Amino acid sequence: MAKTGANQGGVSESLLARIGFRVRLVWCVLAVYFDALRMEPAKFLVATKWWILRKKVRARGQFAPLLSRSSRAYPLWLLKRHRGRSRDLGIDPLAAAVIALVDTSGPHDALQLQQTIKSLHDQGVAYHTVQGAFRSILPALIADLASRDSAWIMPIMAGDSLASGAMAAYRQAIVQTQASIIYADDDCISPSGKRHDPHFKPDWNAPLFECCDYVTGACLLRADLPFMDTAADRRDWASCLVRQALDTTPVKPVHVPAVLHHRLQRPQPMLPLAKLTSLECFPLVSVIIPTRNRVDLLRTCLDGLARTAYPNLEVIVVDNDSDDVATLDYLARLDSGRYRVLRHHGPFNYSAINNRAVSQASGELICLLNNDIEIIASDWLAIMVTAALKPDVGAVGARLLYPDGRIQHAGVVIGMGNAAGHAHRFVNPAEVGYFSRHNLPQFTTAVTAACLVVRRDRFYAAGMLDEENFPVAFNDVDLCLRLNEMGWQSFYEPRATLIHHESVSRGRDADPIGAARFARELAALQQRWHTAEFVDSYHHPDLSRASETFVIRL
Asked: What is the extent of the structural domain holding 407?
């Protein structure tokens, strides 16, 4: 009978624990929604309206950034996803020994150092403390490594700590890879122990890493004595070890998409230089501009091209049945020595218009340019060409701003809204945003064709734009994905910044015919690229797929 009573008591305790968790979860959800309502009441009510009207995709897209602004959004995420401690994956720690090098040169106190050491000890990680350079402890470290068949090094700052279950996750990654670097997501921890500001990182993105070291301080490095010796005399030995590991292995670093480190502070991104001077020659670029009426837009676009500091240009204007007298007169008066005007009749088909122009172009590179683009700096094209000439780059996209200065395009993320969305839309370039990603050159999965530069031979190799399935929408996304598959990755270049008066000359697809056409193109995109299930490697599973700003997925 006593045994039965104990079981019943255990069940009761378990039930109470579940009820307690549910109460905390509901309270936290309500608190996050209340914070959103309090901070942005008008936007909150609009999002609620769309939810009531069953426009759930639109509602989620508007709710996501509102909810993420709450200081309790990350605690809610933690509560929902970390109900228990990570379980031991049963991997022998001796098969993947890890030795931590604890950098004590940064700001910390004795208690924070002890917390770091305790987090290492609790997960079976041996350690050496390092003050400044680590030459003095190198003999002991070498002896430690020599006693182990397979060893990894973990550079970690004093005051930082490992998340529960971090080593289990790392050891699982170790047995599955040949890479020399494994890195994880991290968050910050306050002196009171409160976790905040999670960094949900992309998979390996070499150009982004050059401006934002999101690896050092949250990674493991395969032990290699030659490059360790080179870094041993440097005070920045941790980042030096990471960069030398990158230089000595062809295998890309592996990303563990989980928060495995709690940090006191992170290095700040380094904004790249505004100007690039790496071009030694200027290959011919064919700039292709489809247009219909709206001479004011076309004039602004061509005036900007005339001010562009690029000496080897071919400009092709493709007129799609303009019937405005002023526009026709302007086209007739264009200097035939500087501009070619092609006539393209029939319904607007962006893919067909550009494919035809490319077939008549002479340039080594193609620049697809909307007529509603306003050029504000003379070096934009040289910057984009510099990127497009790199051997591993396919389509290059610019940073496009709305006329009010907010971002309209900073790369394209596949899977947003189960289709594709413009990254960092409506963010002010002066804001920090999501770890300054909108201001940093980087690989992306796709870019917009509103301003796109690509080598002509690669455009042909990828099959050009799909005129049948994507006459208006998603043709650029489809092209970029095909270029990516061939080994030419899309690239976002924020140092080329232009203004985009988005689709103002064509109008929006509010009419039934346009809406039906868009629905067909969306269905084609989802069928071909499975965007409803697509996980964009340059985004993150724990960032919302509903929001074009990078916010936590709740």
From this structure: 285-529
